[in-house]
Amino acid sequence: MKTLGIETSCDETAVALYDSASGIISETVYSQIDLHKKYGGVVPELASRDHCEKIIDVFNEGIGGVDIHKVDRIAYTAGPGLLGALIVGESFAQGLAFALDKPLIPVNHLEAHFLSPFLDFPEIQYPFTSLLISGGHSLIVDVKDFEDYEIIGQSLDDAVGEAFDKVGKLLQLPYPGGPHIEEAAKNGDPVKYDFPRPMKNSDDLNLSFSGLKTAVLYATKDLDISEERSNISASFQEAVIDVLSTKIKKAMKQTGNKSLVMAGGVAANKKIRAALDMLEEKEGFKVFYPSIKHCTDNAAMIAYLGSLKTESKNIYNSNVRARWPVSEI
Ligand code: KG4
Ligand code: ZN
Hints:
- The chain is of the alpha/beta class.
- It is built from twelve helices and ten strands.
- The strands form two sheets. A five-stranded mixed β-sheet has the order 3-2-1-4-5, with helices on both faces.
- A hairpin with a 4-residue loop joins strand 1 (2-7) and strand 2.
- Bound molecules: 5'-O-[(R)-(carboxyoxy)(hydroxy)phosphoryl]adenosine and zinc ion.
């Protein structure tokens, strides 16, 4: 069975084709990063307009030369995400499904992230713990089984990637700040600044990063940023790693799960990976790092999840929602 996946929840326009028997046939992602760069963050209205402009070209590439009539079902991200951006993907998916008389499957973007590791590691077994750290989300999830997810920890304010991006802005680095902070930190002293580790020792698995960002703001006041950029980057990154490692250690103990899976753009950070690898050795669980293209927003995970879902009714009503807690799946 061939499932087409369409993703437009934020600033990536993506289309992929997944075959239940042979896996991913083709996948394409168009990133709007250059469009939003000068604003220092994603501008929702510009995102929607650009999805409209690009979706046909992305679809033509993402279907990988396969005859559209050979596609069995059409899956798309219905939420959570930017409403205007989601509507573009939904309208396109509805148009295709109507014209071809194929089933239409609205899917939850976060659920797709939780299950994306199966694209790269079909051998993974339930249950596992997922650490989803991106620009929009910071979640620790107990993935017990298909459609059985428990969010056991989440950020109470900024997402991890958002904190990287805001600190990047303070350090006059280009958007998105994450990869630039990682690069700058290579030449810095991770203990020069004693930044706070918010909620590190709280009893729960929740996270908080806005206090850390504010601490960086105060540290950069009256400072020659160009001289201290590396040290601040390294010290900030160290604080994030310290909190994440502590919470993951706790989460693995609490769930008893034997596997940890990383997802989200921040999972590209090599220092964070090295810290989790150390935990893997010490604590005896296995860490899986899906390929970066499946960690960040993509349509392969949407097509894959769409292939597992049962067909829904009332498909031509709008299903998009900016908020869609996984507890409501
Ligand atoms: O999953 P993603 O591509 O998109 C959404 O959040 O929608 O994640 C992007 C986030 C940005 O905040 C970016 O700064 C962060 O991932 N990021 C990183 C690194 N690469 C990307 N953060 C820290 N270190 C990195 N190497
Ligand atoms: Zn995402």
